[in-house]
Specification:
With about 150 residues, the protein is of the alpha/beta class. About 30% of the residues lie in helices and about 20% in strands.
């Protein structure tokens, strides 16, 4: 029996999870499924411009595993574009983590140190409050994510 895949840390969950070619009815479309971890690998390497080593560290992976995930994601996207398939982003072995934290008491913001997998609950460095929550980003330069 194969070993279950290690959970990958992702810092961003997409709000839009389905893309389809214009002018093609839904019933006539085939889909390509892109895992959230594959989406994150592309976001870190292609949008953020991180080197594989840094991107792999942020996802809690080895560099070779990160490279395989990113290559698989690029193949799937290329297949969807070339063959006119829809793209569905969902699933995969991942866990959402926040790198930027926000204190609800004093409003302080800070970047989490090493160890993307740290559990929440670390106190605010400004006031010591435990009322700390993640500050979500929608890629570069955007504000917090609202639910």
């Amino acid at each position: 029996m194969p070993r279950p895949p290690k959970r990958r840390f992702v810092e961003f969950e997409p709000e839009v999870t389905y893309f389809k070619p214009a002018g093609v009815p839904m019933h006539a479309l085939d889909e390509v499924r892109l895992g959230v971890d594959e989406f994150e690998a592309l976001r870190l390497s292609d949008l953020e411009g991180l080197e594989q080593e840094e991107a792999a560290r942020r996802m809690g992976l080895g560099q070779s595993t990160f490279q395989r995930i990113a290559a698989a994601a690029r193949r799937k996207l290329t297949q969807a574009l070339v063959e006119g398939k829809a793209i569905r982003i969902e699933g995969g072995p991942y866990r959402v983590v926040a790198r930027t934290l926000l204190c609800a008491e004093c409003g302080a913001r800070w970047e989490r140190e090493e160890g993307a997998g740290q559990e929440q609950g670390e106190p605010c460095p400004g006031c010591g409050s435990r009322e700390v929550r993640p500050r979500w980003h929608r890629g570069r330069g955007h504000g917090p994510r609202h639910s």
